[in-house]
Amino acid sequence: MKLILNLDPVGDAPETIASIAGTVLTVNGTDYDLTKLPDGATASHPVLGTVKRSGSEYECTIRLGHGPNAPHETRFPAPIVLENHDGPIELPLYDVVPEEEQE
Questions:
Q1: Are 95 and 67 in contact (CB under 8 A)?
Q2: What is the mean pLDDT of the chain?
Q3: Of the four listed, 18, 54, 57, 97, which is most buried by Cβ atoms within 10 Å?
Q4: 28-75, pLDDT tens digit by residue?
């Protein structure tokens, strides 16, 4: 299975947590079975955005919550491409502590 996960950054929102087990994508504790979408179909989903399926390849978009000091990679994230991956999905950093606060 291949998953293309697009990220939609949202500031001042709770941190997003995602994982995948087979074809079940879990976002913030809620499971979404991607196989419910028929092969060749595209659908709009309130959490996964536009979901597309082509055989065993899926594409969707999730909101990526971030804090006020999120790095550039979080504010302008590249899609994450996962192939035959099970487990937590490493998302960009939620926030970073400004240097003056680290001392």
A1: yes
A2: 94
A3: 18
A4: 999 999 999 999 999 999 999 999 999 999 999 999 999 999 999 999
| 23 DSSP assignment | T
Question: What DSSP character marks residue 47?
Answer: T
Q: Please give the backbone phi and psi of residue 18, each rounded to the nearest 5 degrees, phi first.
A: -140, 150
Secondary structure of residue 22 in the 3-state scheme? coil
Q: Which helix (H) or strand (E) holds 85?
A: none
Q: How many CA atoms lie within 13 A of 27 on its CB side?
A: 21
Say if residues 16 and 65 touch (Cβ distance below 8 Å). Answer: yes
In 3D space, the residue among 1, 5, 2 whose CA is nearest the CA of residue 90 turns out to be 5
What's the predicted TM-score (pTM) here?
0.91
Question: In the numeric block, which tokens belong to residue 16?
Answer: 């997003």
